[in-house]
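ok posting inputs for the adenosine-5'-triphosphate job
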Amino acid sequence: MKNIVIFGAPGAGKGTQSDKLIEKYGLGHISTGDVLRNEIKNGTELGKTAKGYIDNGQLIPDELMVDILAGVYDSFGKEHKGVIFDGFPRTIPQAEALKKMLAEREHNVAAMIELFVPEDELMNRLILRGQQSGRSDDNEETIKKRLNVYHTQTSPLIDWYKSEGIHHHVEGLGTIDEIFSRIESVIDSL
Ligand code: ATP
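and the output
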């Protein structure tokens, strides 16, 4: 059982690399961004609350995220090979909640993979994605806010996971396949 946290700034390529990991290792995928966008599409209470935060480039409050965590994880059943957490945790309280939820099930996170991409490249990628996908939070103003939120609230998790002894730095520039082979070396070494 190998649970992996795929970590990085908005636009780092977490979703793209997650898809390749799922295919190669048969892991489940928990993308909290996708979970929230689905709630918005279905018009649920959570979706209505989430939309205000997302369109403003802010994080959804930790309590709400932590509330849905165990349910989503347990939906993969007891005998899964592991899941990829993509977009979760984004704050230290979320990382602590994840650790506790997994410990209660005698599970853990085997590795945190930090996809590192320089700021100017992140900006270019997200603006391009906004033009192509029409995602409401991929416009220049909201992107700047999200990058700022990443630096203040999310990046402290790098040191948090270093102190857990499971942080792995991966260069996120290059072709999709080049980046994936760097990730494969980390996973195959676990
Ligand atoms: P990627 O480029 O990998 O798609 P992203 O940061 O651009 O990453 P999502 O992970 O899809 O996009 O997240 C979109 C938005 O959803 C975030 O800006 C935030 O408002 C909200 N969100 C997603 N996950 C969380 C979380 N764990 N805690 C709080 N808010 C979250």
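notes: The chain has a mean pLDDT of 95. Residues 119-133 form the longest helix (15 residues).
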